Amino acid sequence: MIERFERRVGLKTDRKSIVENILRPGSSHPWRREWLTTWREAQLEVAQSIREAVIAAMPRESILGLMSSRPEKHSIEGRNWTQLFDAISISGRAAHRPHFAGYLEGNGRDLADSSALLDMQKSVRQSSVIVEPEIENSPFTSFSKSNSYTWIHMALAQLHGCDALLLDLFPFSGVTPSEYPEIGALLDYSRPSLD
Fold first, then answer.
1. pLDDT per residue over 49-76, tens digit each?
2. Which domain holds residue 9?
3. Entry pTM
4. How far apart are CA 136 and CA 163, in angstroms?
């Protein structure tokens, strides 16, 4: 990355100088814009190479998705969302797993935050991008997130017009879903109201 950056600015430099200049307090140093552009170009190259690998392995019906962090985190990167979704798009389709809800039970303020996050992130993607937020629960117990709180997150995603839900409800190591019949019951009684 440093070599790429040096080619962009036409100067020999090192990590220490780059960090000092791009993080300098006050007005942005000219290098900050150039660093973000260097980073963005490298990110797009990686995304495109992953896309090409997916197409080579599964040329039909593949959809490549992006799992993103909270907007205040990725805004620091200067990410160009249109270019990034274009880079991962296969046959005009891509998916987005936007940051949405935490792993643990929260309160009313957390629910408002979850709703706002879904709404804010609509502006970073094209309308052709499939939206699939993840309802998480970790550690995997009914004490981490109640059925009611899980259902509220599922309902919020529906109200925001999400295309699907990714439900991270079962422990993933050394167990089978049949060992957790209460999760199946949650899904069975949630589905009719969500539909």
1. 999 999 999 877 899 999 988 888 777 7
2. 1-61
3. 0.82
4. 17
